[in-house]
Write a structure and sequence with these properties.
Oligomer: single chain
Distance between the termini: 38 Å
Number of strands: 7
Shape: globular
Helix content: 25-40%
Number of helices: 12
Strand content: 5-15%
Length: about 325
Protein backbone atom coordinates (compact mmCIF):
# COMPACT_ATOMS: atom_id res chain seq x y z
CA UNK A 1 0.00 0.00 0.00
CA UNK A 2 1.06 3.59 -0.54
CA UNK A 3 -0.29 6.98 0.48
CA UNK A 4 0.76 8.47 -2.85
CA UNK A 5 0.40 7.36 -6.45
CA UNK A 6 3.23 5.60 -8.22
CA UNK A 7 4.71 7.56 -11.11
CA UNK A 8 3.44 6.08 -14.37
CA UNK A 9 6.01 6.01 -17.17
CA UNK A 10 5.98 4.98 -20.83
CA UNK A 11 7.35 1.61 -19.75
CA UNK A 12 4.34 1.09 -17.49
CA UNK A 13 1.96 1.85 -20.38
CA UNK A 14 3.75 -0.63 -22.64
CA UNK A 15 3.60 -3.27 -19.90
CA UNK A 16 -0.13 -2.61 -19.37
CA UNK A 17 -0.95 -2.73 -23.10
CA UNK A 18 0.98 -5.98 -23.56
CA UNK A 19 -1.01 -7.64 -20.79
CA UNK A 20 -4.48 -6.37 -21.68
CA UNK A 21 -6.87 -8.07 -24.09
CA UNK A 22 -6.18 -6.55 -27.49
CA UNK A 23 -8.27 -6.13 -30.62
CA UNK A 24 -9.74 -9.19 -32.28
CA UNK A 25 -9.44 -9.79 -36.02
CA UNK A 26 -12.64 -7.88 -36.77
CA UNK A 27 -11.56 -4.71 -34.96
CA UNK A 28 -8.09 -4.87 -36.51
CA UNK A 29 -9.73 -5.11 -39.94
CA UNK A 30 -12.00 -2.17 -39.10
CA UNK A 31 -9.02 0.02 -38.19
CA UNK A 32 -7.15 -0.98 -41.34
CA UNK A 33 -10.17 -0.24 -43.53
CA UNK A 34 -10.64 3.11 -41.77
CA UNK A 35 -7.05 4.11 -42.58
CA UNK A 36 -7.51 3.13 -46.23
CA UNK A 37 -10.75 5.13 -46.35
CA UNK A 38 -8.93 8.23 -45.12
CA UNK A 39 -10.41 8.39 -41.62
CA UNK A 40 -8.02 9.86 -39.05
CA UNK A 41 -6.25 7.15 -36.98
CA UNK A 42 -7.55 8.44 -33.65
CA UNK A 43 -9.68 5.61 -32.28
CA UNK A 44 -9.23 4.84 -28.59
CA UNK A 45 -6.45 2.41 -27.61
CA UNK A 46 -7.36 -1.28 -27.14
CA UNK A 47 -6.48 -1.13 -23.43
CA UNK A 48 -8.81 1.85 -22.99
CA UNK A 49 -11.58 -0.03 -24.79
CA UNK A 50 -11.08 -2.97 -22.43
CA UNK A 51 -11.13 -0.68 -19.38
CA UNK A 52 -14.36 0.97 -20.55
CA UNK A 53 -15.94 -2.44 -21.06
CA UNK A 54 -15.07 -3.33 -17.47
CA UNK A 55 -16.64 -0.09 -16.22
CA UNK A 56 -19.83 -0.64 -18.22
CA UNK A 57 -20.16 -4.21 -17.00
CA UNK A 58 -19.53 -3.20 -13.39
CA UNK A 59 -22.19 -0.49 -13.67
CA UNK A 60 -24.71 -2.90 -15.20
CA UNK A 61 -25.13 -0.52 -18.14
CA UNK A 62 -27.76 -1.23 -20.79
CA UNK A 63 -28.07 2.16 -22.51
CA UNK A 64 -25.00 4.14 -23.61
CA UNK A 65 -24.76 7.46 -25.43
CA UNK A 66 -21.61 8.28 -27.40
CA UNK A 67 -20.70 11.61 -28.97
CA UNK A 68 -18.13 11.11 -31.74
CA UNK A 69 -18.54 7.83 -33.64
CA UNK A 70 -15.62 8.14 -36.06
CA UNK A 71 -15.36 4.66 -37.64
CA UNK A 72 -17.44 2.84 -35.04
CA UNK A 73 -14.58 1.16 -33.13
CA UNK A 74 -15.49 2.47 -29.67
CA UNK A 75 -19.23 2.01 -30.24
CA UNK A 76 -18.72 -1.66 -31.14
CA UNK A 77 -16.35 -2.17 -28.19
CA UNK A 78 -18.86 -0.68 -25.74
CA UNK A 79 -21.81 -2.56 -27.24
CA UNK A 80 -19.97 -5.83 -26.64
CA UNK A 81 -20.05 -5.06 -22.90
CA UNK A 82 -23.83 -4.64 -22.83
CA UNK A 83 -26.36 -7.40 -22.14
CA UNK A 84 -28.82 -8.64 -24.75
CA UNK A 85 -31.25 -5.81 -25.45
CA UNK A 86 -28.65 -3.17 -24.63
CA UNK A 87 -27.98 -0.28 -26.96
CA UNK A 88 -25.33 2.30 -27.87
CA UNK A 89 -26.70 5.49 -29.42
CA UNK A 90 -23.71 7.08 -31.13
CA UNK A 91 -23.62 10.51 -32.77
CA UNK A 92 -21.45 11.53 -35.72
CA UNK A 93 -21.51 14.82 -37.62
CA UNK A 94 -19.38 13.78 -40.60
CA UNK A 95 -21.40 11.88 -43.22
CA UNK A 96 -18.32 9.99 -44.47
CA UNK A 97 -17.54 8.75 -40.98
CA UNK A 98 -21.17 7.89 -40.22
CA UNK A 99 -21.54 5.88 -43.45
CA UNK A 100 -18.31 3.99 -42.75
CA UNK A 101 -19.37 3.23 -39.18
CA UNK A 102 -22.81 2.00 -40.23
CA UNK A 103 -21.29 -0.37 -42.79
CA UNK A 104 -18.91 -1.93 -40.26
CA UNK A 105 -21.43 -2.03 -37.44
CA UNK A 106 -23.78 -3.95 -39.78
CA UNK A 107 -21.03 -6.59 -40.21
CA UNK A 108 -20.28 -6.82 -36.50
CA UNK A 109 -21.53 -9.19 -33.82
CA UNK A 110 -23.41 -6.30 -32.18
CA UNK A 111 -25.22 -4.95 -35.25
CA UNK A 112 -28.47 -4.91 -33.29
CA UNK A 113 -27.03 -2.97 -30.34
CA UNK A 114 -25.65 0.14 -32.06
CA UNK A 115 -27.67 2.97 -33.58
CA UNK A 116 -25.80 5.71 -35.47
CA UNK A 117 -27.33 9.20 -35.36
CA UNK A 118 -25.93 11.45 -38.07
CA UNK A 119 -25.80 15.10 -37.06
CA UNK A 120 -24.15 17.60 -34.77
CA UNK A 121 -23.97 16.63 -31.13
CA UNK A 122 -25.98 19.58 -29.90
CA UNK A 123 -28.65 18.98 -32.54
CA UNK A 124 -29.14 15.33 -31.53
CA UNK A 125 -28.55 15.19 -27.75
CA UNK A 126 -31.51 17.43 -26.77
CA UNK A 127 -33.81 14.84 -28.37
CA UNK A 128 -32.75 12.14 -25.90
CA UNK A 129 -34.96 11.77 -22.84
CA UNK A 130 -33.73 12.62 -19.35
CA UNK A 131 -32.41 9.68 -17.32
CA UNK A 132 -32.55 7.47 -20.42
CA UNK A 133 -28.93 6.26 -20.34
CA UNK A 134 -26.67 4.44 -17.92
CA UNK A 135 -23.48 5.91 -19.37
CA UNK A 136 -22.17 8.51 -21.79
CA UNK A 137 -18.84 8.64 -23.62
CA UNK A 138 -17.68 11.99 -25.02
CA UNK A 139 -14.97 11.95 -27.68
CA UNK A 140 -15.67 14.65 -30.23
CA UNK A 141 -14.79 18.33 -30.74
CA UNK A 142 -13.24 19.50 -27.48
CA UNK A 143 -14.63 23.04 -27.57
CA UNK A 144 -18.12 21.60 -27.23
CA UNK A 145 -17.27 19.31 -24.30
CA UNK A 146 -18.98 21.63 -21.78
CA UNK A 147 -22.20 21.55 -23.81
CA UNK A 148 -22.01 17.77 -24.19
CA UNK A 149 -21.38 17.42 -20.46
CA UNK A 150 -24.45 19.50 -19.63
CA UNK A 151 -26.61 17.28 -21.85
CA UNK A 152 -25.00 14.11 -20.48
CA UNK A 153 -25.81 15.15 -16.92
CA UNK A 154 -29.45 15.40 -18.01
CA UNK A 155 -29.51 12.17 -20.02
CA UNK A 156 -27.53 9.86 -17.69
CA UNK A 157 -29.32 8.48 -14.63
CA UNK A 158 -28.17 8.96 -11.05
CA UNK A 159 -25.25 6.61 -10.41
CA UNK A 160 -24.51 6.38 -14.12
CA UNK A 161 -21.12 6.88 -15.76
CA UNK A 162 -19.86 9.85 -17.74
CA UNK A 163 -16.60 9.13 -19.56
CA UNK A 164 -14.67 11.85 -21.39
CA UNK A 165 -11.68 11.18 -23.63
CA UNK A 166 -8.44 13.10 -24.26
CA UNK A 167 -7.93 14.37 -20.72
CA UNK A 168 -4.20 14.59 -21.51
CA UNK A 169 -4.89 16.82 -24.53
CA UNK A 170 -3.07 14.64 -27.06
CA UNK A 171 -0.06 14.48 -24.74
CA UNK A 172 0.21 18.29 -24.67
CA UNK A 173 -1.72 19.14 -21.51
CA UNK A 174 1.35 20.57 -19.78
CA UNK A 175 3.16 21.81 -22.89
CA UNK A 176 4.27 25.44 -22.81
CA UNK A 177 3.58 25.89 -26.52
CA UNK A 178 1.08 23.23 -27.60
CA UNK A 179 0.76 22.65 -31.33
CA UNK A 180 -2.81 21.37 -31.28
CA UNK A 181 -5.46 24.08 -31.33
CA UNK A 182 -7.81 22.08 -29.06
CA UNK A 183 -5.42 21.91 -26.10
CA UNK A 184 -6.76 25.18 -24.70
CA UNK A 185 -10.31 23.83 -24.76
CA UNK A 186 -9.24 20.67 -22.92
CA UNK A 187 -7.51 22.78 -20.24
CA UNK A 188 -10.62 24.89 -19.76
CA UNK A 189 -12.80 21.78 -19.54
CA UNK A 190 -10.43 20.36 -16.91
CA UNK A 191 -11.02 23.43 -14.77
CA UNK A 192 -14.78 23.12 -15.28
CA UNK A 193 -14.80 19.44 -14.29
CA UNK A 194 -12.85 20.22 -11.13
CA UNK A 195 -15.77 22.39 -9.93
CA UNK A 196 -18.65 20.20 -11.14
CA UNK A 197 -20.41 19.05 -7.97
CA UNK A 198 -22.87 16.77 -9.76
CA UNK A 199 -20.06 14.34 -10.61
CA UNK A 200 -17.42 12.48 -8.67
CA UNK A 201 -14.68 12.12 -11.24
CA UNK A 202 -11.03 11.28 -11.66
CA UNK A 203 -8.65 11.25 -14.62
CA UNK A 204 -7.41 7.73 -15.30
CA UNK A 205 -4.01 7.64 -17.04
CA UNK A 206 -4.95 5.27 -19.84
CA UNK A 207 -4.98 6.03 -23.55
CA UNK A 208 -4.78 9.81 -23.85
CA UNK A 209 -6.26 10.19 -20.37
CA UNK A 210 -9.86 9.31 -19.56
CA UNK A 211 -12.13 11.27 -17.23
CA UNK A 212 -14.26 8.75 -15.35
CA UNK A 213 -17.20 10.29 -13.50
CA UNK A 214 -20.21 9.00 -11.61
CA UNK A 215 -23.34 11.14 -11.56
CA UNK A 216 -24.34 11.96 -8.00
CA UNK A 217 -27.79 12.73 -6.67
CA UNK A 218 -28.48 16.44 -7.05
CA UNK A 219 -30.95 18.47 -5.06
CA UNK A 220 -32.20 21.70 -6.69
CA UNK A 221 -29.73 23.63 -4.54
CA UNK A 222 -26.84 21.46 -5.73
CA UNK A 223 -27.80 21.25 -9.36
CA UNK A 224 -26.41 24.64 -10.37
CA UNK A 225 -23.61 24.15 -12.84
CA UNK A 226 -20.03 25.14 -12.16
CA UNK A 227 -20.24 27.69 -14.95
CA UNK A 228 -23.36 29.31 -13.49
CA UNK A 229 -21.61 29.66 -10.13
CA UNK A 230 -18.62 31.10 -11.90
CA UNK A 231 -20.74 33.74 -13.62
CA UNK A 232 -22.40 34.70 -10.34
CA UNK A 233 -18.99 35.18 -8.77
CA UNK A 234 -16.36 35.43 -11.54
CA UNK A 235 -12.84 34.37 -10.55
CA UNK A 236 -10.27 37.09 -10.18
CA UNK A 237 -7.09 37.05 -12.21
CA UNK A 238 -5.14 36.21 -9.07
CA UNK A 239 -7.47 33.33 -8.26
CA UNK A 240 -7.40 31.70 -11.67
CA UNK A 241 -6.45 28.07 -11.16
CA UNK A 242 -5.00 27.80 -14.66
CA UNK A 243 -2.18 30.20 -13.79
CA UNK A 244 1.11 29.34 -12.20
CA UNK A 245 1.26 25.88 -13.76
CA UNK A 246 3.25 24.47 -16.69
CA UNK A 247 1.33 25.49 -19.77
CA UNK A 248 -0.78 27.88 -17.67
CA UNK A 249 -1.85 31.40 -18.51
CA UNK A 250 0.14 34.54 -17.87
CA UNK A 251 -1.27 37.00 -17.17
CA UNK A 252 -3.86 34.89 -15.40
CA UNK A 253 -6.79 36.84 -16.83
CA UNK A 254 -6.19 35.02 -20.13
CA UNK A 255 -7.40 31.81 -18.49
CA UNK A 256 -10.02 30.34 -20.88
CA UNK A 257 -12.39 29.30 -18.08
CA UNK A 258 -12.36 32.84 -16.66
CA UNK A 259 -12.89 34.37 -20.11
CA UNK A 260 -15.85 32.10 -20.78
CA UNK A 261 -17.33 32.93 -17.37
CA UNK A 262 -17.07 36.62 -18.15
CA UNK A 263 -18.68 36.18 -21.56
CA UNK A 264 -15.58 37.11 -23.54
CA UNK A 265 -15.61 33.88 -25.53
CA UNK A 266 -17.89 30.94 -26.08
CA UNK A 267 -16.90 27.51 -27.40
CA UNK A 268 -17.94 26.66 -30.92
CA UNK A 269 -17.03 24.10 -33.52
CA UNK A 270 -15.09 26.73 -35.47
CA UNK A 271 -13.44 28.54 -32.60
CA UNK A 272 -11.54 27.06 -29.69
CA UNK A 273 -11.34 29.55 -26.81
CA UNK A 274 -9.41 32.21 -28.76
CA UNK A 275 -8.53 33.94 -25.50
CA UNK A 276 -5.58 35.95 -26.74
CA UNK A 277 -7.50 37.26 -29.76
CA UNK A 278 -10.50 38.23 -27.65
CA UNK A 279 -8.30 40.00 -25.13
CA UNK A 280 -6.46 41.89 -27.87
CA UNK A 281 -9.72 43.02 -29.49
CA UNK A 282 -11.14 44.26 -26.23
CA UNK A 283 -8.17 46.03 -24.70
CA UNK A 284 -7.48 46.56 -21.02
CA UNK A 285 -11.14 46.96 -20.09
CA UNK A 286 -11.95 43.49 -21.48
CA UNK A 287 -13.41 41.77 -18.41
CA UNK A 288 -16.00 44.34 -17.32
CA UNK A 289 -16.77 45.52 -20.83
CA UNK A 290 -17.40 42.03 -22.21
CA UNK A 291 -19.43 40.87 -19.27
CA UNK A 292 -21.84 43.71 -19.95
CA UNK A 293 -21.71 43.25 -23.72
CA UNK A 294 -22.59 39.59 -23.50
CA UNK A 295 -25.66 40.36 -21.44
CA UNK A 296 -24.41 38.25 -18.54
CA UNK A 297 -25.49 39.48 -15.14
CA UNK A 298 -24.59 38.10 -11.72
CA UNK A 299 -28.02 36.44 -11.54
CA UNK A 300 -27.86 34.78 -14.96
CA UNK A 301 -27.75 31.00 -15.24
CA UNK A 302 -25.69 30.28 -18.32
CA UNK A 303 -25.23 26.96 -20.07
CA UNK A 304 -22.50 26.41 -22.68
CA UNK A 305 -23.82 26.43 -26.21
CA UNK A 306 -27.27 27.69 -25.23
CA UNK A 307 -29.14 30.42 -23.46
CA UNK A 308 -29.90 31.08 -19.81
CA UNK A 309 -31.67 28.57 -17.66
CA UNK A 310 -34.59 29.96 -15.80
CA UNK A 311 -34.71 33.09 -17.89
CA UNK A 312 -34.57 34.50 -21.42
CA UNK A 313 -31.48 33.81 -23.54
CA UNK A 314 -28.79 36.48 -23.40
CA UNK A 315 -29.05 39.14 -26.10
CA UNK A 316 -26.86 38.89 -29.15
CA UNK A 317 -23.56 40.63 -28.41
CA UNK A 318 -22.17 43.27 -30.69
CA UNK A 319 -19.71 41.86 -33.17
CA UNK A 320 -16.83 44.06 -32.03
CA UNK A 321 -16.75 42.35 -28.64
CA UNK A 322 -15.74 39.04 -30.23
CA UNK A 323 -18.21 36.69 -28.61
CA UNK A 324 -18.46 33.88 -31.11
CA UNK A 325 -21.55 31.73 -31.39
CA UNK A 326 -21.84 28.45 -29.56
CA UNK A 327 -22.91 25.09 -30.79
CA UNK A 328 -20.58 22.52 -32.20
CA UNK A 329 -21.02 18.95 -33.16
CA UNK A 330 -19.64 15.50 -32.97
CA UNK A 331 -17.01 16.04 -35.60
CA UNK A 332 -13.56 14.56 -36.19
CA UNK A 333 -11.79 13.80 -32.91
Amino acid sequence: MSESSTLVTAAHFEYLAARTRGDDAFLRSLKEAARKAGLPPISIAPEQASFMQILLRAAGAREVVEVGTLGGYSAIAMARALPRGGRVRTIEAEKKHADFARAWIAKSDVFDRVLVHEGKGMDVLPGFAADSADAAFLDADKASYPAYLAESLRIVRKGGLILVDNAFAFGQLLAERPSDREVTAVRAFKALMAHETRLQSVIVPIGDGLWVGVKLESSPAQAESALSRCIRSPPSAAGCECSGTPGGYSPADRCPLRLVCLGVVRPSRRSVFSCGDARARNGSRGATRNRTAAGVTPAAGFVFGGGARGGPPPPKPKKKFGWRGGGGGAGPR
